[in-house]
Records
---
Amino acid sequence: MKRVVIMLCALGVLSSVCFGQDVVLALQKGRTPPPVSSKTVIPLEVRGKVDTVTLAEPSRGIRSKIAIISRDGKLYTFLVRPFTTIYGPDWKAITLDKLSTDQQVRVQYTTTKDGFQVARSIKPISRGNPL
């Protein structure tokens, strides 16, 4: 049984290498590479100051969220997932509760099929860079 599992894992690793060859071979032969899949997600970005931070409370059904007020005064609310990267002013990774209101940030996000905006990264805006 262990041999079968090892063989399947090895086959999976080797087959994944084969799929990456199409782009390289096409470029080497002077052809254009195949088009990017329509499922490719391109993150959007918004810059502004932190309005509110809501920490998750699973027992009450509350998810982690952050609200940003952009330069033009528009309010954006983003879900913060476990894979969201958050950086402090010193560019070290921090947790959501360390963000303060009125802090200038840049949020890269994607929109789900259901219309929710999910933050992928939250980074500080340095003082030299205007909104």
---
Amino acid sequence: MLGTNDLAKDTWAQIVKGRAPMMPWIMMALAAARANGLTILDGVFNDIEDVEGCREECRQSRDLGFDGKTIIHPSQIEPANTCFAPSSDEVERARKVISIFDEPEHGKAGALKIEGRMYERQHLGMMRRAVAWHEAIVAKGT
């Protein structure tokens, strides 16, 4: 778990919208976690009354590559869950890409154009992860 409040305390970096002063350390922590096969959670969002600010930071966290966001208040549950869960469009696209790469005629393809976008075989891990997360969320809800 990335301790963004600890980072601010130790470096005197300001806690500001967008977290630009902390971005180098955030990215170093993400790179270290990925290099070592670790799960990494983003630190807390301190303003428990700013639900939209929390949502923005959760989106940023997901876009940067975090696995989740630590939360400190019930008002932060929905933004965190919504932002980190793959959307139905993402899941549909992931299933389609996986399915096309799995076709026998594409067995050795390194990259394919699918609906106007290029996908490399290396993207399949991301696609499978989106489907797996979706299926785990669905299973948990039932």
---
Amino acid sequence: MAFLEIDSLNAFYGKAQALHDVSVQVEAGEIIAIVGANGAGKSTLLDSIMGLTTVTGDVRLDNESLAGKRSAEIVASGVGYAPERFNLFPYMSVEDNLLVGAYTARDDIDKNLATVNKLFPRLKERRKQETSTQSGGERQMVSLGRALMTSPRLLLVDEPTIGLAPKVCVEISEALQKMRDELGATIVITEQNANFAMTLAERLYVLESGVIKAQGTVDELRGDSRLTEAYFGH
């Protein structure tokens, strides 16, 4: 039994279907990547795990179904989410944005805040700075830090490198690896940047138009024509 099991998931926005019979399995302590072009349904998949879309099928975390649960209940069960849209409070300080993430893990605030500051020393230095004045890379760090404040067993990270300079991408990659290796988090990322995904994840799922087109280890999918087709349609 996998730690995270997504079974025949269909997702809808009104009458429009965004995901079609998607199945994904993630083992405990694994980093996997959902890769695909813009509009492939990657964010929808993470939103669906978080209970933010209308779905059929099932999502199970450690053999417990998340179907039908409210987002707050899903967070409380151990799922942290760092969305690509950031969803930060722009006129609040870094520290206050982080503390917003602690509402389901109030007993762990001091421990989690120390962990975030160790992972991202820049945030500790700028803890009183409003996030609206920060760079994209710093806001991504705040988003990841806020997700960690929930004490997650499973961390969902949507497009962690979008719009970021290569040097910052390396920092984000190193932080995600530490979250897995030192904190024991299981991590699912979505990425348009397949090269970045291949350097970080053990396995990939290729998503195109809401359908899983291929899956396998990095070595199995490196150079696979289905990966190219998912991005370029040929």
---
Amino acid sequence: MEKYITKTENETIEVGKKFAEGLSVGSIVALNGDLGCGKTAFVKGIVEYFGNSDDVSSPTYTLVNEYDGTVQIYHFDVYRLENPAPEQCDWMDDYFFSDGISLIEWADNIKAVLPENTIMVTFKKLPEKGEDYREIIVE
């Protein structure tokens, strides 16, 4: 387990870049935490690490954004899905088992369909330290 404390959005982006060093084609990363806790900023760091400077935004209504770079990145936001049956998520397999990296915000909502090798990352706000402090835990 690794733990990071950030106090700005830019620090969270930098942690995302550092984390990306250990990713490769086929990696699946589950990102969990409350609204506004840094999940999308972390994804931005990963996307930048792999050579894409597009605006990164959470795909809440489209479910998935794709980013080109040295490795294809699939960025999911499954906030609107809650405990779907596995057959309702069959379409995700096309991404999970492709030649890209899958990053899934609100992954707890689809826990039952995540592959066993999924990397878990949890984000927590730390209001006792300051409004912008975040703890990022990688398991």
